[in-house]
Amino acid sequence: MLRTTSQIISHHARLEEESAEGYRALAQRYPDHRDAFNRLAEENHRHMARVERAYRFGVTDAYEVGITSTQLDPGEYQLEEYTGGALAEDLATALRNEETMMRFCLDAAKTSGELLPDLPDTFDYLMKRKRRRVELLGSLT
Amino acid sequence: MVVLEEPIKGVIELKNYIDGEWVESEASETRDVVNPATLKKIAEVPVGHREDVKAAVDAANEAFPRWRRTTPLTRARYLMAFKQLLEENFEELGRVVTMEHGKVIDEARGEVRRGIENVEMATGIPSLMMGYNAEDISRGIDEVLIKQPLGVFACVAPFNFPFMVPLWFMPYAVATGNTYVIKPSPWAPVSMMKLVELIDEAGFPPGVINLVNGEVEPVSEILENPGVKGVSFVGSTKIGRDVIYRKGTAHGKRVQAQCSAKNFLVVTPDADVELTVSSLMSSFFGNTGQRCLAGANLVFVGDDQAFMDETLGIIKERAAALKLGYGLEEGVQMGPLQAEPRKKRVVGYIETGLEEGAELTMDGREYSCDPYPETCFLGPSIFEGVSLDMAIAREEIFGPVMSVLTAETLDEAIEMVNSGSYGNAASIFTTNGGTARRFQYDVECGNIGVNIGTAAPMAFFPFSGMKDSFFGDLHGQGRDAVDFFTENKVIIQRWP
């Protein structure tokens, strides 16, 4: 279970990294959409950096830190692997993965509010950005 | 189980940093520095020698005239370079703090961040150090106040915030043009070695910042050496008042000694339960209770037994669920006490509480820290039915122990807070503004929390404290620190 801020940040980083790896693989597999997939992968890294920065700049031993009453189950936020069958199939997987990432950001925003005041805003921001990614993926055929 | 990589490999032989060089101590005897979670030896620290301090003070005095003439803006730029290096090494520093102290990684990173905040604050020295003036105090006569550095200052640091506390003082001291000697806690000296490595890398001139490891002898020399102008201390009242303050002032030094605490957290029946419980958990059990701002006594106001039962019930449920272990394991919420003697001391207080007739409704001695050795670990403990005449309600325990008391009225609660000898911190949890104002107005403590469990002042405010929690006039951090490290000089001038 994710019960500390540090765990939440690490899990988020893992998700963004996995997501980026997936898009880099799709970029190679589907040359027509190489630029779009590469941009998504780059954005994954920016999102990861943004959360880490918000944590590092905001973490403090004053106020509350480290002890949360609500816990997140990392098993509920796992990304699916791409089958490589066809573009439509991989895009559907990508969309489900983005939904998983958004769900994690939403839940992390709620949980981290108890721990670190600046983090919920950052996760909320990522939610908005990830909605745009869903729109972009929907436009690829 | 994800355990972050340990930055300390093997055993570090700690040295002193004097006049820009890493040098051996004159003392041949050393003490082991042990990771309290794993009991692995991580360093050997010299017990220290008076000659070490003499050499450091001589180097600092030698460096002072030139450093004083270095412009405040240039001094600030050294601090900016230092701050950049602290950011680049942020994660390593946090992990080192966890290894030498035992606190969990979130707490350790928080400590590093709060230390950096003081460096950031001190980079504003060109403005902070400005004096003031009045034109024509009499016809054709002007009066000017300028702030000047004094010379060599030193700090004697505690084990509980080994990285942050020296930064309450040192950045302000050197920013204002003084030179400095850091004496870290011998229990947790590694993060200061890492910090001084970064000071060296930042390019501070030799002698401006020096590091001397050790125990009693170096402290005695700091207090007696005529070359030291002032001393900052954080630690127990016994040492702070009876040794540091008395001896330091007797030798003509400026002294700021921030000492022990016994903090009351007062809860009124109209408090927001969720917010209150969250804050109480962190205040009483965060940093394993080893904070001078930690909650110690929890006071419920009024006769609303149902509210008290509900609040305590949630606290116990959450406290029982806390995961103990090695702070580098990311899911761990509470680390060990810093060393075995500290655990023995806290266990001793638990036994005292039982002898005094308090009811131990949660026993921290029964917690599991598997797979780590139990030597330094202790879970959260809760005593109910505590009265003010008990030692567990009056004396600083410095561990994860909550003593629950009741007061019929807010007046009685405030009297309880003020009856203690300490005056470090107190908090109130309420949704009534009038109650909060009354509390902050009447309570005799330096740091007050309103719906905040750990009232830790930011770098741009002084870390306050009064009564037996503070000895001196000016506190660490903020403008107080700038004033502590400078002398006000007044010039009255008339030009024919």
In the CATH hierarchy, what is the class of the largest domain in chain B? Alpha Beta
Low-confidence stretches of chain A: none
Return the domain count of chain B.
2
Number of strands of chain B: 23
Give a structural overview.
The complex is a heterodimer of chains A (141) and B (496). Chain A has one domain (5-139): Ferritin (Up-down Bundle). The model of chain A has no long low-confidence stretch (mean pLDDT 89). The longest helix of chain A is centred in the last third of the chain and has 26 residues, at 87-112. With 141 residues, chain A is mainly α. Chain A has helices at residues 5-29, 34-58, 87-112, 119-139. Chain B is α/β, with parallel strands linked by helices and 496 residues long. Chain B has 2 domains: 12-259 and 469-494, Aldehyde Dehydrogenase, Chain A, domain 1 (3-Layer(aba) Sandwich); 263-450, Aldehyde Dehydrogenase, Chain A, domain 2. Helices cover 38% and strands 22% of the residues of chain B. In chain B, a hairpin with a 2-residue loop joins strand 6 (132-138) and strand 7. The model of chain B has no long low-confidence stretch (mean pLDDT 97).
Q: What's this, in brief?
A:
By secondary structure, chain A is mainly α.
Question: Which tags fit this structure?
Answer:
heterodimer; A: 141 residues; mainly alpha; Ferritin; 0% strand; elongated; B: alpha/beta; Aldehyde Dehydrogenase, Chain A, domain 2; 6-stranded mixed β-sheet
